[in-house]
Request: fold
Amino acid sequence: MNKNIKHEGRRIKSGIHFILGNYAVVEGALAAGCNYFAGYPITPANEISELMSKRLPEVGGIFVQGEDELFSIYSVISASLAGAKSMTATASAGFNYMQEGIGYASAVEVPCVIIDVQRCRGENFATQADVMQMRWGASGDYESIVLAPSSAQELFDFTILAFNLAEEFRNPVIVMSETTIALMRERVEIPEKESIEIYKRMYTSLTPEEYLPFKAKNNSPPEFAPMGKGYHTLYTLNYRNEDGTMDWDAQGYKKLYQRITGKISENKDKICITESYFLNDADAVIIAYGSEVRPALDAIEMARNDGLKIGMLKLITVWPIHENLIKEIAKNIRRIFVVEMNIGKYAKEIERLCLPFCPVTNITKNMGIIHTKEEIYAAIKEAW
Reply:
């Protein structure tokens, strides 16, 4: 037995572990307080469901294997509205089927977490091709919060962060996993229970007679009403007034969606998280996210050993995009390199922000496998 591991009420397994990335997701969800999971089998996300089916009952939670992805996402939404911290997990093809539910959850402001383990179309190989779908896949106006881990440790850490952001902003949060890290075994340190920050759901202090379910300050989510306590809320995809009624009002519709989108877009400075490496003296900067961060850092070491001053901006929050920071970086360097594992999707967002200030070079790979450091460095030298 590993003596470094201490079981905290079986929910938080504090200590040092050597575990699969998918298992790190499960432990992160449990540490965050997840007590409901529904999912449909699909590779390379199956290990999440497999371990959840064992771990959730141990801590008094509920595991459900749905008959498909639509059931899974709507079941998770329903559980969340009933008061549970809830999550589902899928892979790229299954993520397609969840778009209707994600759009509904965004419209009625339901906190929940979706793990998308990206894979190539129909094949269990690595990709980051879902990056734009995670932002624009559902119908209607909404904003997405998407986190991009680059290691098993970050799969644990960012799953907790995803639950906290979901609760704080009453919004679905997507963890952008990948085959690369989901099926990799790495060292994961699970901290003590007392050091894990948990955001608690905000419930109204108003009486049922006083409470208006969709009344909130500008750019903020409304408070929840506890279920089964005499409050009545109609969670409909249709336009609704602050009291939940559905009498159409054009100005009311505009105000509602300014708030629903504004609670994300106007709080970017709070939501967006990045890490920077060697930016102080950089002549050029790599922007990368997810598993591509790893070879990018190795390529930077190669470049600096050859006298090329390259830095990196690691995007932890992929959506919303940290526009102001990226623009400021672009104003002070000679070139931006965007490294990603697809045909160059997120690079278009970087070009939109940076081209007035500096050129952007896309270093893309769409072959079901992560870049090597040599491939990245060769592309840097070619553009230098």
User: Anything to note?
Assistant: The CA atoms of residues 21 and 378 lie 30 Å apart.
